[in-house]
Amino acid sequence: LRDGLSKTRKQLNDTAGNLGTDLKDTFTRLDSVEDLEYALIAADVGRTATEEILEDVRASRQPNLQQALMEALTLQLEPDARRAQFRKLGFSPDARRTVVDPKGHVVMVIGVNGVGKTTTIAKLGQYYMGRGRSVMFAAGDTFRAAAGAQLGVWGERLGVPVVQGPEGGDPAAVAFDAASARAARGTDLLFVDTAGRLHTKHNLMEELKKVRRVIDKADPGEPTEVWLVLDAVTGQNGLAQAKKFHEATPLTGVIVTKLDGTAKGGILVPIVRELGVPIKFIGVGEQADDLQPFDSQDFVRALFD
Ligand code: GDP
């Protein structure tokens, strides 16, 4: 994880490292507070969160700046409901970790083209199979010619069955077939790839709603998870799109990819704050095992320790 986050890590440590470790000393010098503020904003943590972090650090009982900063940042990576718990339990392994196991059997994976959706589905397959779960994929992006083929290649490589539909066919039909097949076979988890084109006449959001309805129908009684894949490199732009997806198909989780390619890993903070949805996994590379369940404490430790 430290390697995957090396760019953000370097950016933060170059500044925060210069401040020294004594909290009191740092906060009596205006220039060092400004440096810290700058480092957080440069990492895309966002203004409001940065203000809150500085307040928390200032009020911290920790004498050590780095420790206080790590705790304050961890809080910002937790949705509201869990923040209180963290405040109580502190920065410790006892604080409950994000649950990455889907509640039901079907996970719709949505997001804009190019963010790493198909690769992430492959990585998810590898992750859950490694934990003894049976997995299926549905090639629901019938719009992009290569998408089905790409998922097919991953399926073959990982030994995961892939339900395909005709190119240009109805994605809802593929999703329905796949969800029915999953139920019939008793497979533990089905990941449904979806289209991510934006600038076309077809209404992507309406299509996603329909896919969701169809899955609910094929697998009644099971909550369908909807995970949005976001590319960390696109920063704030990606977040604006994320809100549109969230309005159309309420999200139950977020996966942030390409954290290895940016010094702005702080973008996770505004993602959690503005969507109010937990981050389930982070992507830190192109290989099938470059996906990690997200843990706010591990993440912050990898940035500073
Ligand atoms: P999709 O259009 O959203 O399905 O995107 P793809 O899955 O085809 O991925 C687009 C590109 O991003 C591919 O070259 C992937 O290898 C790459 N990619 C995906 N996830 C990551 C990641 O976490 N880190 C890096 N460096 N590249 C990634």
UniProtKB/TrEMBL annotation:
Residues 278-291 form the SRP54-type proteins GTP-binding domain. Keywords: Cell membrane, Cytoplasm, GTP-binding, Hydrolase, Membrane, Nucleotide-binding, Receptor. SMART domains: AAA (SM00382), SRP54 (SM00962), SRP54_N (SM00963). It comes from the Bacteria. GO terms for biological process: SRP-dependent cotranslational protein targeting to membrane. The keyword Membrane applies. Its main location: membrane. It is found in: Cell membrane; Cytoplasm. It is a peripheral membrane protein. GTP binds at residues 111-118, 193-197, 257-260. The keyword Cytoplasm applies. One of its GO terms (cellular component) is plasma membrane. It catalyses: GTP + H2O = GDP + phosphate + H(+). GO terms for molecular function: GTP binding; GTPase activity; signal recognition particle binding. Its EC number is 3.6.5.4. InterPro entries: AAA+_ATPase, P-loop_NTPase, Signal_recog_particl_SRP54_hlx, SR_rcpt_FtsY, SRP/SRP_N, SRP54_GTPase_dom, SRP54_N_sf. Involved in targeting and insertion of nascent membrane proteins into the cytoplasmic membrane. Acts as a receptor for the complex formed by the signal recognition particle (SRP) and the ribosome-nascent chain (RNC). Belongs to the GTP-binding SRP family. FtsY subfamily. Part of the signal recognition particle protein translocation system, which is composed of SRP and FtsY. PANTHER family: SIGNAL RECOGNITION PARTICLE RECEPTOR SUBUNIT ALPHA (PTHR43134:SF1). This is Signal recognition particle receptor FtsY. It comes from Deinococcus phoenicis.
